[in-house]
């Protein structure tokens, strides 16, 4: 059984995560060269925010429990039928196993950061290709209506799937994209995440 944090603690956590993502996007948009520099500490800090988002139950490690939470939430949040939910579950589980757990039962924060650092330092181009693939596969799941666009609704639902359910903060983060007609393109979303990670 997963422990839930208090509302105040959770809200503060959400604010911190959203603020860090917005700051990260601003820094990267301002200077792509600086963002991709060899400043490993800066990169590890960014990757730690990604870990915190994926550690859905906030127990300091990523396990099957985090995967199961997203598997349970996605069909509910998206309002999918049982058949659609099963197809989405297969994609979601494959994503977690391919990019995050990588055959392990548990991933600690330090192990996650070390794995990202190793991949980055061994081959930046290969690392970027993997992150791009990770983001493309993630957005194929998020774009449940297959419009190649992400609406505020898609965005909020995606984060609710990993337990981030503060609508006001998610709206703030989405507005940062300056969406045209209330939508952002999947490609813009992917490009930002590739740069962020």
From TrEMBL:
Gene3D superfamilies the UniProt entry points to: EF-hand (1.10.238.10)
Key word Ribonucleoprotein present: no
A Pfam family hit: EF-hand_7
Keywords (A to Z) from UniProt: Calcium
Signal peptide from the UniProt entry: none
Record-annotated EF-hand domain positions: 42-77
Keyword Ribonucleoprotein: no
GO MF assignments: calcium ion binding
UniProt name for this protein: EF-hand domain-containing protein
């Amino acid at each position: 059984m997963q422990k839930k944090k208090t509302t105040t603690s959770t809200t503060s956590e959400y604010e911190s995560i959203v603020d860090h993502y917005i700051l990260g996007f601003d820094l990267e948009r301002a200077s792509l060269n600086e963002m991709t520099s060899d400043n490993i500490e800066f990169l590890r800090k960014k990757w730690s925010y990604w870990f915190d988002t994926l550690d859905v139950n906030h127990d300091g490690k990523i396990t099957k429990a985090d995967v199961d939470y997203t598997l349970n939430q996605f069909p509910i949040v998206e309002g999918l039928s049982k058949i659609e939910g099963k197809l989405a579950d297969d994609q979601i589980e494959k994503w977690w196993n391919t990019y995050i757990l990588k055959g392990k039962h548990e991933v600690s924060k330090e192990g996650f950061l070390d794995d990202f650092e190793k991949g980055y330092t061994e081959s930046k181009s290969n690392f970027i290709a993997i992150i791009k693939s990770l983001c493309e596969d993630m957005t194929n799941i998020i774009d449940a209506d297959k419009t190649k666009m992400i609406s505020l609704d898609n965005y909020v639902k995606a984060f609710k799937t990993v337990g981030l359910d503060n609508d006001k903060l998610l709206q703030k983060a989405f507005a940062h994209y300056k969406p045209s007609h209330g939508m952002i393109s999947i490609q813009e979303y992917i490009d930002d995440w590739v740069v962020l990670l």
